[in-house]
Amino acid sequence: MRDTDRALVQAASAVAKLRCRSAAHTLATAARTADGRVISAVNVVHVAGGACPETIAVGTAATQGVGELETIVTVGDRGRSIVTPCAACRQLLTDRYPALRVIVGNPEDPKVLPVTDLTPPTPH
Ligand SMILES: [Zn+2]
Q: Which positions make up the signal peptide (predicted)?
């Protein structure tokens, strides 16, 4: 874990605390771009189908003209821990950013793994 990785976890946690205050938004992602910017996103929960925060972060990156994400982390609302990307997001992230680093694990001792090395994820 680099200092910038810890800062990314803090950024995602801050977004979760500020913006995930209803059942409509329960997860927050922060992603660092290759040039050091941080993109954040929350998920969308809806009966008609929602979207994971990682997916929305990919769209936000594209919207902002960002070509490469370097590191990503997702955290849950209400102080929940770091969340591993779901299978669909893992596939999306691997396809879009094969060199992406993903922060996973216990918040007190998080680890950084290549997106291609993620173990089967926890559903969310
Ligand atoms: Zn997902």
A: none
